[in-house]
Amino acid sequence: DSIANQIAAGEVVQRPASAVKELLENSIDAGSTNIKLIVKEAGKSLIQVIDNGAGMSENDARMSFERHATSKLRKSEDLFSIRTMGFRGEALASIAAISQVELKTKQDEEELGTLLQIDGSELKKHEAVSCKTGTSICVKNLFYNVPARRNFLKSNPVELKHIIDEFVRIALANPDIHLSFMQNDLEVYNLPPGKLSHRIVNIFGKNYKEQLATCEENTSHINIRGYIGKPEFAKKTRGEQFFFANNRFIKSSYLNHAVLNAYEGLLPENHHPFYVLFIEIDPKHIDINVHPTKTEIKFEDERTMYAIIRSAVKQALGTHNI
Ligand code: ADP
Ligand code: MG
Asked: What's this protein's family per the entry (predicted)?
């Protein structure tokens, strides 16, 4: 029923940025090569994601808003082994429970696509529509029927910052996808597909180009690749430190410490280095008792991870043998 739906929804969607994350991940899972994100008022009045992915059949489109209706059904234990970002089949159902959704979707072989309009889980419109292959989903007035939640949202700049954070994480993990982001008709990002180094420069600025050092380390246990910033490029502000495990963004203060440890003696006081590091690891070495929506994870053998990360960063800094 609708109350249960709204409570469940609140667990998946805490703020506009969580809806943005889920929608972008769905577009990635659909094999899109071009994804556009459009938001108004920091996502409070509109979040739209337009992709050129596989689209959905009429039946799949209807099903996609049912709770636990996923085309990607897996066990949650498999979170870090599965190749799709989604697997719970909860995001669209949750979003539709607490907003006004308009979905347009079409598969390549179909002549006409499907238009669905859903207000607070209630189907308002269902018709055939002519549209391009792919999916466009508009999420309007998030939490319009949950005033307590809506009133709890932070100011537009704060909510927009959360959206930017999610967008940047996804953009770094998918440099081969063209991603763009408009807010209130202004372009926030337009990121053409290319190499990771180009993506970093396109996101953070031209001056990052000379500041990156390649980081790579392959052991029987894990593979690490990515870029770190040169020590003299470190900043007083945090927020440009990224770890990904099997292409999912993760937070790990422990691994962050391993990186900082490698910079020891090289950083001015209270400065934080830039880094974007991708860890490929057999999922059986990742602690499985981790909540799927949490980005904090634990590795089975943390000490080894620490040592490998530290050594990889030292190597990249050219201080390995010093
Ligand atoms: P999950 O991603 O966990 O499967 P979601 O609620 O996010 O669950 O999506 C439900 C289903 O809707 C997906 O499994 C997928 O089949 C379909 N879907 C959602 N978004 C898209 C999209 N942009 N393109 C194609 N299919 C989509
Ligand atoms: Mg999903």
From this structure: Belongs to the DNA mismatch repair MutL/HexB family.
Q: Which residue minimizes the CA distance to atom 21 of ligand 1? A: 26
Contact present, 95 and 174 (Cβ < 8 Å):
no
Q: Looking at the domain assignment, is residue 82 inside a domain? A: yes
Q: What single-letter amino acid sits at 155?
A: S
Q: Which atom of ligand 1 is nearest to the CA of 53?
A: 24
Domain co-membership, 219 together with 115 = no
> Which domain CATH number covers 100?
3.30.565.10
Which residues, judged by CB distance below 6 Å to any ligand atom, belong to the binding site of ligand 1? Answer: 22, 26-27, 29-30, 51, 53-56, 60, 64, 70-72, 86-93, 135
pTM of the model: 0.93
Q: Which DSSP string do the residues of 64-85 spell out, in sequence order?
A: TTSTT--TT---GGGTTT-SSS
pLDDT for 74 beyond 60? no
Interval 69-77 mean pLDDT: 54
Are 276 and 172 within 8 A, CB to CB?
yes
Residue 166: give the domain boundaries.
2-191
- pLDDT of the residue at 124: 98
290, part of any domain: yes
Task: For residue range 184-208, list pLDDT tens digits in order.
Answer: 999 999 999 999 999 999 999 999 9
Tens digit of each residue's pLDDT (9 = 90 or more) over 210-229: 999 999 999 988 999 999 99
Residue type, 74: R
What is the residue with the minimal CA distance to atom 13 of ligand 1?
A: 70
Ligand 1 atom at minimal distance to the Cα of residue 90: 6
Task: Give residue 303's identity as a one-letter amino acid code.
Answer: R
Q: Which residue has the tokens 């309007």?
A: 140
pLDDT at 320 over 60: no
What's the 182 CA to ligand 1 centre distance in angstroms? 23
